[in-house]
Amino acid sequence: MKLSYNAPFVLTFTLLCLLAYVISGITDGWAAREIFSIAPSASLTQWSTWPRLLLYPLGHAGLDHLVSNILVLLLVGPALEEKYGWKKLTIASVVTSLFTGIIVVLTMHYGLLGASGIVFMMIVLGSFANFRKGEIPMTFLLVVVLYLGNELAQSFASDNISQLAHLMGGLSGTLLGFMMKPGKLP
Fold first, then answer.
1. 186 assigned to some structural domain
2. Is residue 99 part of a domain?
3. Does residue 76 form part of some domain?
């Protein structure tokens, strides 16, 4: 028996999140605040915002936040990698991060960190597992009603959770589910 690096994107992303968490701990939270997050005062005219649009999913507010995101990623991600390939899943995650980050910067005045948008994208994308042209999967409808409906309901809570990031991740997963074709990129 030997270990298999069976899901390159998911495993690499997980390791990067763990590394960011350790670095943030060693720096007493400085790295989480200054590198692995989008600041509440961020503007798209600031050059420092643009790298953060790709780095914020690696940062997490605490161990519970990190573990909850990583567990779902590890459960859903490998099946998506098998269906779409690691390159498409990487592109989908980058697009989701940029889309979510830009929307938050343009419309909200709070900080953003964590992989929740990517996780929600994967949850919704995973509901397209048996998608056939001309059909809408019932699993997709249930995921939208349960997960995204809950996020809409929670969006008025004062809980330091960006439901907008979850909703943007779900919207990304929906659009990608209808647009992406299974199979690996050459």
1. no
2. yes
3. yes
Looking at the 3D structure of the chain, how many domains does it have? 1
**Residue 68 identity:** S
CA atoms within 13 A on the CB side of 64: 1
CATH number at residue 116: 1.20.1540.10
Domain that holds residue 72: 8-179
Handedness of CA 51, 77, 151, 180 (dihedral sign): positive
- In this prediction, residue 155 carries a pLDDT of 61
| Tens digit of each residue's pLDDT (9 = 90 or more) over 65-119 | 899 999 999 999 999 999 889 999 999 999 999 999 998 888 887 788 999 899 9
